[in-house]
Amino acid sequence: MLKRPSLSNQNCYHCGELCEDELINFDEKPFCCNGCKMVYEILNENDLCNYYDLQNSPGINLKNRNYEQKFAYLENKEIQNKLLNFSSKKLNKIVFSIPSIHCSSCIWLLEHLDRLREGIITSRVNFVRKEVSIDFNPEIVSLKTIVELLATIGYEPEINLQNASKSKSKKENRKLYLQIGVAGFAFGNIMMLSFPEYFGFEGLDDSVRMFITYINILLSLPVVFYSASGYFSSAYKGLQQKYINIDVPITIGVVALFVRSLYEILTQSGPGYLDSLAGLIFFLLIGKWFQSRTYESLSFERDYKSYFPLAVARVAENESEMVQITELNEGDIIEVRNQEIIPGDAELISDTASIDYSFVTGEAETIQKNQGDYIYAGGRQVGSTICLKIKKAVSQSYLTQLWNNEAFNEENTYDSLINQISKYFTLVILLIALISAGYWYFVEPSHILNSFTAVLIVACPCALSLATPFTLGNAMTILGSNKLYLKHINVLEKLWNITSIVFDKTGTLTKSEEAKLTFEGEELSSQEVSLIISLVAHSTHPLSRAIAKHYNDTAVFASVVNFKEIEGQGLSAIIEKSLVQLGSAKFIGAQVDESNSTDASRVYAKINEDIKGYFNIRSSYRSGLSALIQRLGNSYNLSVLSGDNASEEANLKPIFGQNSTFAFNQKPEQKLAYIADLQAKGEQVLMLGDGLNDAGALKKAEVGFAVTEDVTAFTPACDAIIYGKNLTELSRYLSFAKQSKKVILVSFAISFLYNFIGLSLAVTAQITPLFAAILMPLSSITVVAFATFAVRFLAYRHKLV
Amino acid sequence: MNVIIVLISISIIVAGGFLAAFLWAVRSGQYDDTYSPSVRMLFDEKKKKTKKNHPKG
């Protein structure tokens, strides 16, 4: 077939995308759609074109967006109160989360909102969190107007009641910074004050020496009681659950260090080990900070609540009012407008509806529904306003029920490698301490306490506990630069043991937007193609658009008479005196050849009385998929789950080979059950999916990856987010993750070696403060340096950097 | 009193001042967003004065 280059090779001045379907010239600048042009106009009018000077084409593409009425619920006072951080007569404060913030121009524009709309007082962006906080005067401008303004200029905020809970993690992060600051301050000063001691200055007065040691005690108090407090409480919690985590030996070491130092200083028998103590906690906290770095702007926790609207219009006695969706009851009549989400399972009262389930299933085509049909929650109405009668409350609906499954309440029973080791480590250390104390009891009783505490001090697993955060933290950063964003470093640990990979089909293996189109039948003349294209040009149905896109170089006839679109069946019109019909076999009156029916979406074409054939439209698989599957197939069991019928099995078989399992017509609960089945067989499962219908399976699996074309778009709750384009590199990422385990094991070995050296000196009661002050940082730095370089090297070997 | 005790005291107090500055900086949220201030300071504010159409406060 002919394939003409796109309409122009100009890039949109606003969003930078190629002007493929449409080219609008305005103000001597090219724009790809009306949305982009409109934003430019708004900015131009308000003297805000600085936006375009800071970055080239910074805008957000506005194709296929429609905001009419979408934010009506923001007029509800109750909802406003929940969203606003502060409200008074003349001043309201609100924080919006806007995922599309991406460059300095965004910051500039969003901080100049006051010039776009009167009543906005100030606006300030937090780029890292992708948030903007806006102060406005509610007497002049309403919340709804502001949100609409943001949406029209391409920065649609993500509004849900979950956002409020985010501020907690911010405070925790600040606390960690404070703890590190205090520990670092004390570490530096104590070390400096201890220098005379290290070098054995004899010239110091005893009064000065005492003064210094008391200052050291003073400096170490905030370190022990503030900076290290997290380790104590974590160890205590662990012991309460009869579980020895890595914080237990750390706590023992810290307490031993502190008590022994106090004893030595107060009895003036020695200078103590306070510098080692402060240093130890400082390094540990740095490891903790490294571990806690996450992709703050990405959300890994979204459930259906963040996807459903906050409120919906309920019709009661001819009046409609906005009510929160949690207050909807069975039997309520609701109105759902264009682009709004249907919040609960319902029965259609209006004549027809076309529902887009793409968020739920990943399927891009809209589905036609007729009066009386049962409509599942989660679909998006496309077209005119429809009326529905709620059949089930929101939390009980087909889709949301998934969240009532116990998989969503399960405690995280995952045991990290370091905690598995710490159990034995702690016991061995205590044993060694007791044995050496017992030995000295018989040989030289004055050494008992000395060697007992020295063992506990030297064995404090500082280097050991730094190995994991630095290895995996670096690995996570490297994967992030390859567009695989992990929620937490322990996801990597879970990846080590994966034995089975389960793929969702639509949106994961296939690209939801692009369809593969072939024409089966007698070859069409260019005249006939033109007739067909003229017909589909009048329809917005996805199949029509797919056909139009396939022949986007063909001339279109202007005279289209008697155009009819019968929903769910097909199109017909009289063009150039020919009756052109497109649609299902039944609509056309074609005999379906049952034998080779693969059930892929077929559109039959009929011109006058002549059935020309049919368009075969099937979703296209990602390029490079079969190579990926081959590589993965060697080391993992593979399965494919699909909500669709089995029509694609014939296409999947050659890609996946004979050893893979396929399951079709899977409901969300069945997907979850499939994972549970695999787990019952002892498999550790990695699930890849994209829609809300995969949410249960993603949660149930040991590791759930959400696949997305755009990280700012909606993704269900998951352990990691991966770009669709990078999916074909999955085998490399997994192999990289697996090899990172070796780095950790070697790091463990290094720190055990240091421990061994230290212990052999400690049991013989030879350890000195200077030796401890050198050994502890040295071991930590070696382990951190090794972990960092080894991971970089691994990444280089896997071509990830 | 030994002069070194005075000097040590002063040095600790000076260092404590920097610690206090750091604690203040963290608490006031300066570490929450480490990117936008670097961009914000480059924005040209000149044009704003030509158009005065918003009430302050």
Protein structure class of chain A: alpha+beta
* Largest interface (C-beta under 8 Å): A-B, 40 and 34 residues
Tally of helical runs of chain B: 2
User: Main beta sheet of chain B, described?
Assistant: none
The total count of strands of chain B amounts to: 0
Would you give an account of this structure?
The complex is a heterodimer of chains A (801) and B (57). Chain A has 801 residues and is α+β, with helices and mostly antiparallel strands. Chain A has five domains: 72-159, Alpha-Beta Plaits (2-Layer Sandwich), CATH 3.30.70.100; 169-293; 308-404, Distorted Sandwich (Calcium-transporting ATPase, cytoplasmic transduction domain A); 482-510 and 622-738, HAD superfamily/HAD-like (Rossmann fold, 3-Layer(aba) Sandwich); 512-620, 3-Layer(aba) Sandwich (Calcium-transporting ATPase, cytoplasmic domain N), CATH 3.40.1110.10. Helices cover 43% and strands 18% of the residues of chain A. Chain A has 25 helices and 28 strands. The longest helix of chain A is centred in the C-terminal third of the chain and has 34 residues, at 730-763. Chain A is elongated and about 115 Å long. The radius of gyration of chain B is 21 Å and the shape is elongated. Chain B has 57 residues and is mainly α. The longest helix of chain B is centred in the N-terminal third of the chain and has 25 residues, at 3-27. Chain B has helices at residues 3-27, 36-40. The A-B interface holds A 46-47, 50, 90, 104, 107-108, 111-112, 114-115, 118-121, 125-129, 137, 140, 170, 173-174, 177-178, 181-182, 185, 188-189, 193, 205, 207-208, 211-212, 215, 219 and B 2, 4-5, 8, 12, 15-16, 18-19, 22-23, 26-27, 29, 31-36, 39-40, 42-44, 47-48, 50-51, 53-57.
